[in-house]
Write a structure and sequence with these properties.
Length: 378
Amino acid sequence: MESYIQFFALKDNPFRITPDLDFFFMSSVHQEALGSLEFLMESEEGFAVIIGEPGTGKTITIRKFISQLPENVEYAYILFPNLSPEEMFRAILEDFGIDIDDSATKNKLFSTLKEFLIKKRKEGKKILIIIDEAQNLPIETLEELRILSNLETDKEKLLQIILLGQPELEKKLNSDALRQLKQRITVIARLSNLTKDEMVNYINYRLAKAGNSTIKISNSAYKEIFKYTQGNLRQINQIMERALMSAFVKNSHQIDREDIKEAAESLGISKMKRKKSFYLILPAILFFLLVAFSLSGYYFFSKDIQQEKKPEKNLKEVYVIPNRLNVRAFPDKSSEIVYVLKKGDKVEVVNDKEGWYKIRYKNITGWVKKEYTGYRNE
Ligand SMILES: Nc1ncnc2c1ncn2[C@@H]1O[C@H](COP(=O)(O)OP(=O)(O)O)[C@@H](O)[C@H]1O
Ligand SMILES: [Mg+2]
């Protein structure tokens, strides 16, 4: 029997949901996450954290990163980490291929791991520990990881750690019990769903990679996919795979809105509820906007006057971590660079906004990414 792969003259299944590197699509958020991981490796210490909802590409991104690691890096990759500290040490040792007695105590496991790290450092190797789905790590285990990450010889850290997890991980890291770990985080990157345009490119990219020449997707079908998935990569794959099958069964080379609808419904994926109720509360939103708008005009106006008189208060001081750090005119990566700070520069923080600090340095003010600053001069 002919399969849909043959029917569409494909070489391969374009929407397999296994994290397959041949199909890796470099969206802007994935590129940024990879950049953060590279930054961790350059900085030679600490933790990197990648946060994303399920299906946003955490696992495939780390695979991509691993595939590009230089030869002198050895890594352990731990998945399903609902592990006690002992179990985690054991899992790491196992991943590095080290035999250890079943009866070994936590101290024994820790010292074995330490000896291994020292030996590798002498051989000129870098060690990386990657923990996927790290939101499942108990607090005690995260704390043990921090202690592990403090190990050093001659002031050189012995390993680096990458944590990947769902948004609960970030909540956990913000808890008081993990204060010290939080200070050791060098970079946090966040993965998110694709935009509509990125989604269209993504679908075409995967089809092209799989050798497609005969599939047509209507605009209304794209719109429908976005309504169901909101740009979530795993769901896009699931829906597209079903939709291809459904078109194949109908002997059609065109994917239409109906195919998408059937596919999504058969998968139990529904359009975002928010969208439906949105129309019900629309009048309330409009009223709210009207009130907010009139108030905000007053607020901004009065604030302008205040700022003339009183300079912004210094909230705290932080240090620049990377060798160079761009200061932007606005809290936006694409805004103009007004100054470039150097590693170790001490700056005053005068405002704080979603991942950005507004800083003052000498007589310059502007915005820098928080993750590139720290409380200590390192
Ligand atoms: N950047 C990407 N390029 C190609 N495919 C992706 C990308 N991100 C996600 N996917 C697809 O979506 C699926 C879910 O991604 P995955 O890495 O497993 O997400 P997460 O680990 O965040 O749950 C992957 O198997 C892959 O097929
Ligand atoms: Mg994953």
